[in-house]
């Protein structure tokens, strides 16, 4: 059945396609409606991509329109799986909400995401698009709104909540569950169980449909469980299914600069799950190659007690096999305070001709002053990343083969990294390695200085 757009907007959407639309069968009307609507939103400044610092409108590829057509045609619960960066949120969540509301102003849609803030941001963006299309709205707060034609006794036209919220109120016509899990939560059994409970609750509550959009993050995540249920319609986006999309969105460029995105593509485009963190580090490889770019060092200083002082040195290098940039690193560690091993560190930094040393803890200015006496330029930094995130950040590099230890390292140091998760009480070496990778991949290539996060 062909639904109708608001009369006030239909005319403006169809002006550019007026002649061609009259030449088509009525069954093709929805196709032109969605194309015209997207183009109108482009004209109004929405769906812009940032490419090399320039903002430009982007159009969905044939594959993306096929995903959209599939999603809106499903009668019950349906699940779309695909990697980060392929346009899931833009076309299957944001644009779908706009399109469905325009075609049925009395609809009620509940949006669930990983956080309340994310849900509210999407609802606000949808509201901005509708208002730009001159659709009057009644706002019910940051996370909900109602169209004037909506039924007052029903739930709002579009409202939001986090995936961990208890779902209450009337039964919505459509529940969209958008990326409730990310890569960092793949190891959290508690979060995976909570998300699965919320999905089951949403399926019981929805009046008509539940639409899940996400990505595989672990072999036992909720999506893997849903894929085994016969009553759920499933569509996945693999690399060989969307070559045009990859070319248009230029994701290879993005992947090289974003390890979490690379992790997502390894799983969802290549079907390659990364091993658990322990197994990952147990298989970290060594190389005889040396970095072709300047070396930098990160110091994780200890101040006594049972802590260890760890020094990670490394730089970037383009690997001929991967055709991508990798990090080659050396890691050194000692028991006790950093000051007790100062001369060893100075010798390493001078011998390796390290460009710059970064030490954790801005307040410890005495570290920088001491190294300055040895003509070593240094800078303190404060990290806002918790230890778990840092370990998972470096795990992504290890699993993708883009972080390697130099074979000149003493075998004891290599073993300390490979077996830190089982045999050692501390993770200072891996922590320093994680901070090195994080800072190297936030290097401002134009000025050869690190971004300060």
From TrEMBL:
InterPro entries, from UniProt? P-loop_NTPase
UniProt-recorded name of the protein: Terminase large subunit gp17-like C-terminal domain-containing protein
């Amino acid at each position: 059945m062909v639904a109708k757009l608001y009369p006030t907007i239909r005319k403006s959407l169809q002006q550019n396609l007026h002649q061609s639309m009259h030449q088509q069968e009525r069954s093709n009307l929805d196709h032109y409606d969605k194309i015209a609507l997207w183009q109108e939103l482009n004209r109004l400044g929405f769906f812009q991509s940032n490419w090399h610092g320039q903002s430009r409108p982007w159009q969905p590829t044939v594959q993306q329109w096929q995903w959209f057509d599939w999603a809106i045609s499903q009668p019950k619960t349906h699940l779309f799986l695909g990697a980060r960066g392929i346009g899931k949120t833009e076309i299957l969540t944001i644009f779908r909400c706009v399109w469905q509301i325009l075609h049925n102003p009395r609809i009620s849609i509940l949006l669930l995401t990983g956080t309340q803030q994310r849900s509210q941001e999407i609802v606000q963006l949808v509201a901005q698009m509708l208002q730009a299309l001159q659709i009057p709205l009644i706002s019910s707060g940051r996370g909900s709104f109602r169209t004037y034609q909506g039924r007052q006794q029903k739930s709002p036209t579009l409202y939001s909540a986090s995936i961990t919220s208890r779902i209450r109120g009337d039964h919505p016509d459509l529940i969209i569950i958008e990326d409730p899990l990310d890569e960092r939560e793949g190891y959290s059994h508690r979060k995976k169980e909570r998300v699965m409970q919320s999905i089951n609750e949403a399926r019981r509550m929805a009046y008509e449909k539940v639409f899940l959009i996400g990505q595989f993050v672990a072999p036992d995540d909720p999506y893997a469980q849903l894929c085994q249920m016969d009553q759920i319609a499933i569509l996945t986006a693999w690399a060989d299914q969307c070559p045009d999309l990859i070319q248009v969105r230029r994701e290879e460029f993005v992947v090289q600069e974003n390890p979490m995105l690379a992790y997502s593509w390894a799983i969802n485009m290549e079907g390659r799950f990364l091993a658990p963190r322990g197994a990952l580090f147990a298989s970290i490889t060594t190389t005889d190659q040396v970095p072709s770019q300047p070396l930098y060092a990160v110091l994780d200083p200890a101040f006594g007690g049972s802590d260890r002082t760890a020094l990670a040195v490394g730089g970037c290098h383009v690997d001929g096999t991967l055709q991508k940039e990798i990090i080659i690193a050396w890691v050194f560690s000692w028991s006790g305070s950093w000051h007790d091993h100062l001369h060893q560190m100075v010798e390493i930094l001078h011998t390796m001709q390290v460009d710059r040393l970064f030490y954790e803890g801005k307040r410890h200015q005495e570290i920088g002053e001491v190294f300055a006496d040895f003509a070593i330029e240094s800078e303190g930094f404060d990290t806002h990343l918790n230890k778990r995130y840092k370990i998972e950040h470096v795990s992504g590099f290890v699993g993708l083969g883009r972080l390697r230890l130099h074979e000149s390292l003493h075998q004891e140091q290599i073993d300390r990294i490979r077996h830190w998760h089982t045999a050692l009480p501390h993770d200072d070496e891996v922590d320093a390695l994680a901070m090195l990778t994080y800072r190297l991949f936030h290097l401002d290539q134009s000025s050869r200085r690190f971004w300060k996060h």
